[in-house]
User: What shape does this take?
Amino acid sequence: MSSAESPHFGVVGLGRMAQALLFPLIESGQLAPADVRAAVGSAASAERLSQGHGLAVSTDPAEAWAAPVVLLAVKPQQLQQAATAAAGVAGAGGAAGQGLLISVLAGVTLERLQRLFPHRVCVRAVPNTPCLVRQGLTGLAWGGGSGGSTPQPTPQQRQLVQDLFERVGDVMELPESQLDAFLALTSSGPAFVALIAEAMADGAVAAGLPRVLAHHLAHRTLAGTAALLHEQELHPGQLKDMVSSPGGTTIAGLRELERAGARSALIEAVVAAAERSRALA
Assistant: This one.
């Protein structure tokens, strides 16, 4: 479909995550600003985004919903309003079953998406915050299972979605039943890691380092450790043992963490986040 007939890409809700996904496409030349129609909630946001990025941004979502591919990135409580707007657009997304809806709404199931957008192929995406610096993780679950009456994704649609999220990190397709655990680890996980980084820096300050230096060293330690685990494919226990000398400083610190129940607390934090995600759905 040419841009003369309809914009190639619609965005409903152009917040930080939607921008992180959209702008790499534009920067690479894969998508022209003229081929994008975006809708936001306020006139002030529409004006700011239009001026800053050369996009057609409006508070009226009709043109965005007319696109064959739509990225839905509103707040979950705005879903029904978005569905009502989509239903009011004649022939939205082209012929029935041809339009693609990419949802990044936390906790909104494929069953609900397919019920609200029955003539679109739906894919549920769970990207995490490091996507903002192109170091993210995204879990994908597709609607339209075999034998169902819902629209089936084409190979081209699957590849388009894969390419979209690979520009900001690693991508994996999962059964929807695993997305809550994926979200708990990868989307809630950065907050848990940030808490650890803050606590480590506080400890360094208590031990005598200046605050700014302590934060810098804590961040670099976490980043370097993650890189070492990933690049050398180490089990975390292997790395722990590598730096724990008999009677040394590290084992003394690990003993305190075990005494405080740090390991159990982190396990329960991930489980609690997954359970909360299921409850919200």
